[in-house]
Amino acid sequence: MTKDETIGIRVPAELKRALIQIATKEGRSLAQLCEILLRGAAASYKEEGPAYLQRLLSRQKKEPSE
């Protein structure tokens, strides 16, 4: 599969650190990990629709602030 598009996003430093830790643990690059997570989320959204995002957002509100 040809990768011919880019996405640039800004994230909080703690999220980037967490993603780097996961990528390192899995023996992958940060870019590979982000692509895997995005593909998984897109597939879940395709199956569940807006309910998927609502579930993530409600979970996010319940988590304590760090």
Pick out its properties.
66 residues, mainly alpha, single chain
In short:
The protein has three helices and no strands.
Order of helices and strands: HHH
| Sheet/helix structural class | mainly alpha
The mean pLDDT is 92
Strand content: under 5%
* Rounded radius of gyration (Å): 14 Å
Q: Distance N terminus to C terminus?
A: 38 Å
Helix content: 55-70%
- Which stretches are poorly predicted, pLDDT < 50 over at least 5 residues? none
Overall geometric form: globular
Strand segment tally? 0
Biggest pleated sheet: none
Q: Determine the number of helices (DSSP H or I, runs of at least 4 residues).
A: 3
Write the layout of secondary structure elements.
Elements: H1 13-26, H2 30-48, H3 50-62
Helix pairs in contact: 1-2, 2-3
Give a structural overview.
By secondary structure, the chain is mainly alpha-helical. The protein is built from three helices and no strands. The longest helix is centred in the middle third of the chain and has 19 residues, at 30-48. The chain is globular and about 30 Å long. The mean pLDDT is 92.
